[in-house]
Amino acid sequence: MPELPEVETIARGLDRRVRGATIVSVWLGEKPEPFRSPPAVLEKALTGSHIARVHRVGKHIIIDLEPAGSSHKREAAPAQWLVHLGMTGRMLVAEAEAAVLPHTHAIVDLADGRQLRFVDPRRFGRLSIAEPPAAQASAEPGKLFRGTGREPLDISQRDFDALFRGRRTPIKSALLNQKLLHGVGNIYADEGLFRAGIRPRRQAGRLSHAELARLRAGLQAVLQEAIVLGGSSVSDYVDSDGQRGFFQLEHRVYLRTGEPCRVCQTPIRRILVAGRGTHYCPNCQK
DNA sequence: CATGTTTCCTGACAGC
DNA sequence: TGCTGTCAGGAAACAT
Q: Residue A23 CA to nucleotide B10 C1', Å?
């Protein structure tokens, strides 16, 4: 399940491998679920474009596109290809001859003979195009898509506190809400709350300033450490080079139900919050 | 508007 | 072996 650190790792790998490549043609599969923009829009924006940069916003991979060739060819505007991996989505760079995996929904042919392939068995992932408003050449093509919430690694403490003010929902639900913070999913919500010593069901709006400061620090620490280790490989996550991450070895609560807490040896407990498996230490978290 | 619940999907796994 | 049922979860749709 790719969250912020996994998506960051994948985006960095893709940037290294396909930045500067030119897209010559596109194949889109029959299943409609992966296409959040109409297939015709995807096809038109991608075909003939040049990949200027690959980066991350929240859990989205952003591929900045530029119209190919000299600028006065057509009035084609810069656009962005947005990829959300959902639960099981993958973006692979492959040689054209390589076997096509089952559940491949899109294949983008590059001028150098390689391909970018989107594979997603569960089809929770989504491909879309962000374009500047009609007839208005965007001044900042790299920033068309701004995401749905705030970046957890950039946000100030003041803004972080304001996100949760007055909310009666459990803090874990608030952390998963992409309209508040984006990029945090089930793993890093649980791990961040553990580091902050806060129980997942605590009402978001009732946390003290000190607790919110610990939460922001814990969340940022866990995200940054995970990026360094290439993300968490639970189930079958691998990055764009097919490499597994190693942060799962550092998990203190996630998927450790019944195992002793690494700090106090109390068995880790599992409950359901916002419909998701939620793990915490009943002794360390208050 | 805020919050909770249901839905979409397939692979993995338990139980028989 | 092979079938059935259950579960996982991000985010949108829907209900309260």
A: 31
